[in-house]
UniProtKB/TrEMBL annotation:
Membrane-spanning residues: 15-40, 90-119, 139-161
Protein known as: histidine kinase
Domain Signal transduction histidine kinase subgroup 3 dimerisation and phosphoacceptor positions: 205-273
InterPro entries: HATPase_C_sf, HATPase_dom, Sensor_HK_TwoCompSys, Sig_transdc_His_kin_sub3_dim/P
Entry's EC annotation: 2.7.13.3
Signal sequence extent: none
Keyword Metal-binding annotated: no
Keywords, comma-separated and alphabetical: ATP-binding, Kinase, Membrane, Nucleotide-binding, Phosphoprotein, Transferase, Transmembrane, Transmembrane helix, Two-component regulatory system
Gene Ontology cellular-component terms listed: membrane
Gene3D superfamilies per the UniProt record, alphabetical: 1.20.5.1930, Histidine kinase-like ATPase, C-terminal domain
UniProt key word Secreted: no
Lineage: Bacteria, Bacillati, Actinomycetota, Actinomycetes, Micromonosporales
Molecular function GO terms recorded: ATP binding; phosphorelay sensor kinase activity; protein dimerization activity
Domain Histidine kinase/HSP90-like ATPase: 313-395
Organism of origin: Plantactinospora soyae
Length: 398
């Protein structure tokens, strides 16, 4: 992991832990209100989504249920109300236990930052203290203990914030995780939705191909046929008018080349011929070489991969790099393709401005639809200010 990405994780972990502390205190203060099943589910679902985003777990958050009456209290179908109510004391305890050390760490870093140059501005009785009980009474203490406290606590945050935040997030997901039946039902719902998306996309793709062939290639072939018919008739009526016949044949020849070009474009949009000609390695090399941003490509030995998986990887990388060129303002990008057992992983990164969101029509939604159609997953880590990392995982076992 690069240093920049590590510091991003430290920052996210610190923000998560401080949020957990605030959430734990708020749970205690608003306990009577949160004991109402609907609010408990909303509160639990917010925490579940927050923990899922930190861990990069897709589908971690879910819409809150809107049950009323006796069903709201018992919730026999899903069992989520009981887990949401259980999460209240767990969150109050773990939020304070995990968040308070983070607050002390950040707070003492701030104290040291202020005390080092400004210790003299405080009164004798109010002098700031470093390392808990060492009063700053002179420049020697300030310039030695102040930076040392900043360095030690920053190192502690660097090492401790990410794993502690992940530990709290895992506790949250464990407490709020679905039963086996609920996971199966949710999985069926996801597959049903992705199947509908695939059918819609397939229908739209067929309509596009039909439109391209009808309006482009077919129209050109009809024009070619008409020119050849006119040329044939002109040659039959007046064999001496060679110039007119030659012009018609030249137009027919040019139209044939244009029709062949359009037909190749249609075929390329269905299944890129470069995949069949050069394989996934060669196809991705061509995509990264042609990207408007300098892009590094790393591909492991993938062994045998199905054509469907290759096509999804190709289109995902091509679409992601197109987004990088158009929207990210990046100066460098990278593509990493690896395989572990029966899972193929693709990591696309850039050092741009971040903020990628599939709800804004940046093309990530199309990547997600293609990947979900093969029962894969897509994770997008793109905080405002960057960097961006898109991780695609696909099953590729035989």
């Amino acid at each position: 992991m690069t240093s920049d990405r590590r510091w991003v994780r430290v920052r996210r972990g610190g923000v998560y832990l401080l949020g957990a502390l605030v959430s734990g205190v708020a749970t205690v203060l608003a306990l009577p209100l949160l004991c109402i099943p609907r609010f408990a589910r909303l509160w639990a679902n917010w925490h579940r989504g927050r923990a899922g985003r930190l861990l990069g777990a897709p589908f971690a958050s879910r819409p809150a249920l809107h049950a009323t009456g006796r069903r709201a209290w018992a919730d026999p179908v899903t069992g989520r109300t009981s887990r949401a109510l259980l999460w209240l004391p767990v969150n109050a305890i773990t939020g304070v236990a995990f968040g308070l050390p983070a607050l002390l760490c950040v707070g003492n870093i701030v104290v040291a930052v202020i005390a080092t140059p400004l210790w003299w501005a405080f009164g004798l009785e109010d002098r700031p203290r470093l390392f808990i009980d060492v009063a700053v009474t002179g420049w020697a203490t300030a310039v030695t203990l102040g930076p040392l406290q900043i360095l030690l606590l920053t190192a502690l945050a660097y090492v401790g914030f990410p794993p502690i935040a992940r530990a709290h997030a895992r506790i949250c997901l464990v407490v709020l995780s679905d039963s086996t039946d609920e996971q199966l039902a949710e999985r069926v719902a996801v597959l049903t939705r992705t199947r509908a998306d695939v059918l819609d996309a397939h229908g739209a793709e067929l309509r596009r191909i039909e439109r391209d062939l009808h309006d482009g290639t077919q129209a050109r072939l009809v024009a070619i046929a008409m020119r050849l018919a006119v040329a044939r008739q002109a040659f039959s009526d007046n064999p001496q008018d060679e110039q007119f016949v030659e012009e018609l044949l030249r137009d027919a020849h040019e139209g044939t080349e244009e029709a062949m070009t359009e037909l190749r474009e249609v075929i390329r949009s269905v299944y890129p011929p470069i995949l069949a000609d050069r394989g996934l390695d060669g196809a991705l090399t061509a995509v990264t070489t042609g990207c408007g941003v300098p892009t590094r490509l790393d591909i492991d030995d993938l062994e045998r991969v199905s054509p469907a998986v290759e096509a999804v990887v190709y289109f995902a990388v091509a679409e992601a790099l197109t987004n990088v060129t158009k929207h990210s303002q990046a100066t460098a990008a990278g593509v990493r393709v690896s395989r572990t057992a029966d899972r193929l992983s693709v990591l696309i990164t850039d050092n741009g401005t971040g903020g990628a969101d599939d709800r804004q029509g940046t093309g990530i939604a199309g990547i997600r639809r293609r990947v979900l159609a093969l029962d894969g997953t897509v994770e997008v880590d793109s905080p405002a200010g960057g960097p961006t990392a898109i991780t695609v995982e696909l099953p590729c076992g035989w």
